[in-house]
Amino acid sequence: MSYKGFLILAPAAVLLILPILVTKSVTCFNLPWLSKTISMDSKLKSLFWLNKSKANKKGMAPIYIRLIKGKRKIEVSTGLFTPSKYWNTRKSKVLDGFDLANQINQSLDAYKKRLAQIQTLVLLQDEYIDLKKIKNHLLGISSNDKTLLEAIQYHNEMIASQAGKSFSMNTIKNYHFFKLKIERFLSSEHGISDILLVEITHMFLEQFINFMIVKDSNGPNTVAKNITLFKKIINMAAKSGEIDHLKPV
After folding, report:
1. Phi and psi at residue 102, in whole multiples of 5°?
2. Dist. CA 197–CA 151, nearest whole Å
3. ∠ CA(170), CA(175), CA(177), 5° rounding?
């Protein structure tokens, strides 16, 4: 192969192997622009669908995007409408028979491109993939919602800065082990790497307690200490205004 030919083929080869280098969990990109379903992490998917049950008096039904991750899902309204008979379910697009088909399909393509960009960005930055965050990105809404692990990390760093003064090294180690336990709980019981503070419920705490007793085989003292730590993190977040639906814990 000539040097010139190598220069032409090398960039293409890099593009081919880049998805493999980034992650083994990217299972499919159905081109063009992930026409129906996008799979990421083997748990995150998106589906463009026609909500026929919400058709208006003119027979125009709204087009929605369903984001799915594990057992969770969230619906996003595109603000686009089409008669049911012109909707192509397999290709997730409007058939040419409808006079607004071209305009609607262009808007759908823009959504698909935006969604692909967001998922790629999240993957490359190794961020927590949250459905609400992705929905906000799609709609151009800024979101500063914090996650549980972010709150724990902030708390632990604040405590660590006072090592040898207000807190002993053993106390700091306990906070570190608490964070690891929460990570195992989220992965084992929910199949997620993190969770938004606004999504935490009292049921979440009960599940965490059950996890410690059944899966981690923790004794009463260990369970009680971790519950205290959990409540401290939640109350700290509540006081800062991050959440309000769990007060008091």
Report:
1. -60, -45
2. 8
3. 90
